[in-house]
Design goal:
Layout lengths: L1 H10 L1 H7 L3 H7 L8 H13 L3 E6 L7 H21 L3 E5 L10 H17 L4 E3 L7 H13 L5 E6 L5 H10 L4 E4 L14 H21 L15 E4 L3 H13 L8 E5 L4 H9 L4 E7 L4 H10 L1 H13 L1
């Protein structure tokens, strides 16, 4: 019930207007968001790189409501790609299609994504397309496939383990040799579309991780690139120690080199696990979000774990 309410608040305009005017809200959000400016995020990435950690730069924003806003978001992401290049940091970028026009006009979204992928390819970089809630799943997958069919293969997609459909989606994507970020899912979906119980989501996550690792083995164990920009086939995105342990065990059983299995986590969450992954010799990629559109992202982080919500509430009473 609490999770449902927080996800509702993440989309509520009235709540956004209230919360973003609380000074302490940004103080709490800054645990998960690197800053409002690109330079803030680049500094965080420099720090991560010094620790042997790669990054994905995430210019926050979603559900733009006009062509101009979608084009502005596209330019901001291209600026982020340039910022990575100019700073010489080891990072790629992540985007949401609703950020660059999917909710406005599908053709506009495709045009903007094409611009981004060409821009990234010219700089030897990679663009991860994030997965949003289920009304956009089919369109997101269709546009992803269309770009790859055009030869723009410097892109990957996200699969959410809490959806019933994800195993079928993943098997098809593996036949196409796509690069996948596997996460549990951060939206509120109806029981007819998603596993309502955590134990079922966990079991499905492990099953999907097996498929990813098997595909990597079948394709010669592609590893993360030396510059940290191009990820391997399996991106295991989780802060759950049991999911990480299972992926490591299964990968070892299949003879997967450590460099062919990338773990992915979010900035500001489970730094102990992050350090453990690096110490064990696995590639780690941290998603580093930045920008003024931090409110929906922040509310979804609160919804994920009670500890995150307590962090926010404790700041409220200290304000």
């Amino acid at each position: 019930m609490l999770r449902s309410f927080l996800i509702y608040l993440s989309k509520a305009v009235w709540a956004r207007k209230i919360v973003t005017h609380w000074g302490f809200a940004w103080k709490a959000a800054s645990r998960f968001v690197s800053g409002e400016k690109l330079e803030d995020a680049i500094e965080v990435i420099r720090y991560l790189n010094k620790k042997g950690v790669n990054a994905t730069l995430d210019h926050l924003g979603e559900h733009t409501d006009s062509p101009d806003a979608a084009r502005k978001a596209t330019q901001d992401i291209m600026d982020a790609i340039d910022g990575i290049e100019q700073a010489g940091v080891q990072a790629n970028v992540s985007i949401k299609l609703s950020q660059i026009g999917l909710t406005v006009n599908e053709q506009l979204c495709e045009e903007n994504l094409r611009l981004l992928l060409v821009h990234a390819r010219e700089r030897g970089n990679f663009v991860r397309i994030d997965m949003e809630d289920t009304p956009w799943t089919d369109k997101t997958l269709a546009i992803f496939r269309k770009m790859r069919a055009e030869g723009l293969t410097n892109t990957g997609i996200v699969i959410q383990a809490y959806l019933y459909r994800s195993e079928d989606d993943l098997k098809k994507l593996m036949q196409e040799k796509s690069t996948i970020r596997l996460c549990k899912g951060a939206y509120m979906e109806p029981a007819e579309l998603a596993f309502p119980r955590k134990k079922d989501v966990d079991a499905n996550y492990d099953r999907l991780a097996e498929i990813l690792i098997d595909t990597s083995a079948e394709n010669g164990f592609p590893e993360v690139s030396a510059d940290g920009k191009l990820p391997p086939i399996p991106g295991i995105a989780s802060h759950d120690p049991k999911r990480l342990a299972y992926a490591k065990q299964y990968a070892a059983q299949k003879g997967l080199p450590k460099k062919a299995l990338e773990f992915q986590m979010l900035h500001g969450i489970r730094r102990d696990l992050q350090d453990q992954v690096v110490q064990e010799g696995y590639p780690l990629r941290i998603y580093v979000p930045y920008g003024t559109e931090w409110y929906p992202y922040f509310m979804r982080r609160l919804a994920e774990r009670p500890a995150n919500l307590w962090f926010f509430v404790s700041n409220f009473f200290r304000k």
